[in-house]
Amino acid sequence: MGSRAREILGMDVDKLIELLRRAYCDEWLAYHQYWLGAKLVKGPMKDAVGAELLQHATEELLHADMVTLRIIQLGGTPPTKPSEWYTLTNCGYDAPDDPFVKTLLEQNIKGERCAINTYKELLDITKDKDPITYNTVLQILQQELEHEEDLQALLEDYELMMAAFRQG
Ligand code: FE
Ligand code: FE
Ligand code: MG
Description:
This protein is mainly alpha-helical and 168 residues long.
């Protein structure tokens, strides 16, 4: 990172890099959770749910890409070993061991809510201090909000369908 670039940042760069490194781990874990869930998903609406999970997987990987680029621009190094994903993550990892649609939707909604909290926090601390990171985080946050909404809508459809089914 250039000296002037560092000077215009109104914040502790090392602290910011650390938070971005954590977000990077979240993104890789989210990517894997979605990607494998998309392949394993079983139950009613599995095709619609699988397609959405796969789309989200792709977008989480893109988030990892965006976060990585910013870490490098700031002069940091992204976590280089998958073992670090578990130790640095904010949101953890829910293995898709139970591939039932409802379970996978609930697990991933939980993950999205945590991602929203993480990026909202990053947005707050970079506001008026680091416009470049702010812009990147804002783009990611917009997609995480969309992810939560997409999954909630699918869960709602699932519940409506099951209610109709029970009524006969
Ligand atoms: Fe993401
Ligand atoms: Fe997401
Ligand atoms: Mg979507």
